[in-house]
Write a structure and sequence with these properties.
Layout: E1 4-11, E2 18-20, E3 27-29, H1 33-48, E4 57-61, H2 65-69, H3 83-86, E5 91-94, H4 100-114, E6 119-126, H5 133-141, H6 156-170, H7 175-193, H8 206-210, H9 215-219, E7 228-230, E8 233-234, E9 244-252, H10 253-258, E10 264-273, H11 288-301, E11 310-313, H12 318-328, H13 336-341, E12 353-354, H14 359-362, H15 370-382, E13 398-405, E14 410-418
Helix pairs in contact: 4-15, 7-12, 11-12
Length: 420
């Protein structure tokens, strides 16, 4: 089986790309879902040094564009990235909740590996802020098990609160210690995010203005600034409602090497699904399917966790960053929170840094774009063109993305390795 590499990437600015009239409630779109797709796609092609004519197929990851932006049949619009070069090319939209972007990349990867496609363009996009809070909550709830969860107003904060309570109780953590663990995770995301020029909560943003760079600063906020959303998760345990897009270009590694391109090899993938309803899972204190995805990805890549320099993990809620850290093997089960309290996983960690981008917590979480964004920013780190925080002592050689969809239902783990 031919190895495949990323040869170009682009990430748009993430944020709430709308203007809201507080008096009338009217929302003006400042950068549409179409604008975002075009920017990301053209940026990735330019970074790869190719045109649309050299692309054999396009895969688009988007979670719920029909609800968020009134546009189903979204993949077809990718033609407009390069109308002359991409017209008559096959285009497919992939949906797997918040893992839509990673699944789109995997489907493109399989096409290149099969020999049906030489070069593929993968775009992830979501436009979330055209809806109000109620609308966003409903759109995301359709990614849960609707009969048992969404239809009964069990939102995603509620679902991950079950993981938080399950983890806290299973390991016998007292409430104050657990809150300090979660706040430490959030603060790390905010510290990294403020250095990322593409982040939703970047320099000059709310986390910067409030100085939320330590657990003490977050825990010291008054209740109205950090209200409980779903006990024990508070506002600053939750990721952001974000608009944005990212794109990558992939081709066979040997072809990339022959043309002298900068390349990062997709060395291993693990794509594993959990049962969708939390009511039928054996426990709520670990990512069982996530651990299996890690095992498969690492086995294919021929690595162990000691080989990984940087990781982008799915911190849709702070508890999931703790669970993901343990699923990757960076911490022993039940110990990740203590490792964060001890100052681990920062840019100067001697073993592995986590979420140098700021993660979903600070970079933002445009759900269909998140998986592609993880890969795009890891690619930039691995080719020595980092966006935002860098490793303190070396250029990373191996990175891992851990992207989940739904309540940790779809689990996508990718090992990326600098090719040459």
């Amino acid at each position: 089986m031919s190895k495949v590499s990323i040869i170009g990437a682009h990430n748009t600015k993430f944020g709430s790309l709308v203007k809201r009239n507080k008096e009338t409630g009217e929302i003006t779109d400042l950068q549409s879902i179409y604008d975002l797709m075009i920017e990301a796609g053209r940026g990735a092609l330019q970074d790869a040094g190719i045109t649309g004519a050299e692309v054999d197929g396009v895969w688009v990851g988007s979670c719920a564009p029909g609800i968020f932006a009134n546009q189903e049949h979204l993949a077809a619009f990718a033609t407009e990235i390069d109308p002359e070069g991409l017209r008559f090319k096959p285009m497919t939209r992939c949906e797997d909740a918040c893992a839509s972007g990673s699944v789109a990349l995997y489907d493109a990867l399989y096409a290149v590996e099969a020999g049906r496609v030489d070069v593929a363009l993968v775009v992830g996009v979501e436009k979330m802020n055209l809806l109000d809070t109620k609308g966003v909550t409903h759109a995301l709830a359709t990614c849960s098990h609707w009969p048992e969860e969404g239809a009964k107003a069990v939102s995603f904060p509620c679902l991950f609160a079950e993981y938080a309570k399950g983890y806290r109780d299973h390991y016998g953590l007292d409430g104050d210690t657990f809150k300090a663990m979660l706040a430490t995770v959030a603060a790390l995301g905010y510290r990294n995010g403020v250095e990322n020029p593409l982040a939703h909560f970047g320099k000059g943003g709310p986390s910067d203005k409030l100085g939320l760079f330590t657990k003490e600063a977050i825990l010291g906020l008054p209740p109205e600034k950090n209200p409980v959303i779903a006990d024990p998760l508070a506002l600053h345990d939750c990721s952001l409602v974000t608009d944005g897009a990212a794109a990558v270009v992939i081709m066979r590694t040997d072809a990339a090497k022959a043309t002298g391109r900068k390349a990062v090899e997709i060395a291993g993938v693990g794509h594993v699904n959990e049962r969708i309803a939390i009511s039928v899972r054996p426990n709520m204190h670990e990512l069982m399917a996530g651990k299996e995805a890690v095992r498969r990805a690492f086995k294919e890549a021929g690595i162990g966790i000691h080989d990984v320099d940087i990781a982008e993990v799915h911190d849709c809620f702070t508890i999931n960053q703790i669970l993901s850290t343990e699923a990757l093997g960076l911490s022993k089960d039940g110990r990740a929170g203590f490792d964060y309290l001890e100052g681990r996983f920062t840019h100067d960690d001697p073993h592995c840094a986590i979420n140098l981008s700021g993660g979903l917590k600070a970079k933002g979480h445009p759900v269909g774009a998140t998986g592609v964004s993880m890969h795009a920013l890891l690619y930039k780190q691995l080719v020595g063109e980092p966006i935002g925080v860098t490793l303190a002592k070396k250029v990373p050689q191996v990175g891992v993305s851990f992207n989940v969809g739904g309540s940790a239902v779809t689990n996508c783990v990718t090992v990326l390795r600098r090719a040459f």
